[in-house]
Amino acid sequence: MIHYLTRQTGRILGFILLLIAYLINSSELSLATKYAKTNPALANRAIGVMLITVAVLLVGFTWFYKRQLKRNNPRQFGHYKLTIRRLSRVLFAFFIMLVVQIFWSQLILHHILPMPSNQSALDSQIQLLPFWNNVYGVLIAPVFEEYLFRGFFFNFFFAKNTRWSNLLGVIVSGLIFGYMHTLSFSVTTLLYASLGWVLAGSYLYFKDIRYNIALHFLNNLWSII
């Protein structure tokens, strides 16, 4: 019992540290955005630090993820060849995510639900520093978030390949994903949580995090088109 609690505590702390590393990296972009108009030199330095940090974290996250799979991988996560069937399933998952967002946007348009506050903040950041915020949101954030909320999360807390472990893992992963995008529990949290549930289900189905990254990339790209 003590060994189990110690191990789980270590996993929770490890996940928190990885999450903090990602949040620190994204805060460097926020700093650059804040000073983009008033102090371009400081903004450029912040972007430089952000890019270096991105490179270091991507190498570290990838190495750690592969190391975990070598130690314990009952679901046989790995690299699987892209086929027509897999591509069609990715596009179907993307379609589901679009339906969720279109439905939600209609609720906002008809004043049934409020505009997500984090979306308004994101739009403001993009206006101040469009190129780097779009690059980060479309290309970088999906990689970090898939490693965190699907790769590391399932390996840390729901490693057993059972029906209940998979179901509970999908539900909890989606809820945490939703909460991290709103930083509060609200109706809007369910929007992001539902997208997280699709991504978590896709991770278990494809068993290849690269498909998840591509799906997340498509979703974020669509949001800025």
Helical content stands at over 70%
- Looking at the structure, what is the overall shape? globular
The termini sit apart by 51 Å
* Uncertain residue ranges: none
Structural class: mainly alpha
Tally of separate helices: 8
Number of domains: 1
**SSE order:** HHHHHHHH
What quaternary form is this? single chain
Largest sheet: none
Radius of gyration: 18 Å
The total count of strands amounts to: 0
Overall pLDDT level: 91
Q: What fraction of residues sit in β-strands?
A: under 5%
Protein name: Metal-dependent membrane protease
GO molecular function, one term: endopeptidase activity
Transmembrane segments: 42-65, 86-104, 164-183, 189-206
Keywords: Hydrolase, Membrane, Protease, Transmembrane, Transmembrane helix
List the helices and strands and how they pair.
Elements: H1 2-34, H2 40-71, H3 84-109, H4 117-128, H5 130-157, H6 163-182, H7 187-206, H8 209-224
Helix pairs in contact: 1-2, 1-5, 2-5, 3-7, 3-8, 4-5, 5-6, 5-7, 5-8, 6-7, 7-8
Keywords summarizing the entry:
225 residues; globular
Fold and architecture overview:
- It is built from 8 helices and no strands.
- It is mainly α.
- It is globular and about 55 Å long.
- It has one domain.
- The longest helix has 33 residues, at 2-34.
- Belongs to the UPF0177 family.
Summarize the structure.
One of its GO terms (biological process) is proteolysis. Helix content is 83%, strand content 0%. The protein has helices at 2-34, 40-71, 84-109, 117-128, 130-157, 163-182, 187-206, 209-224.
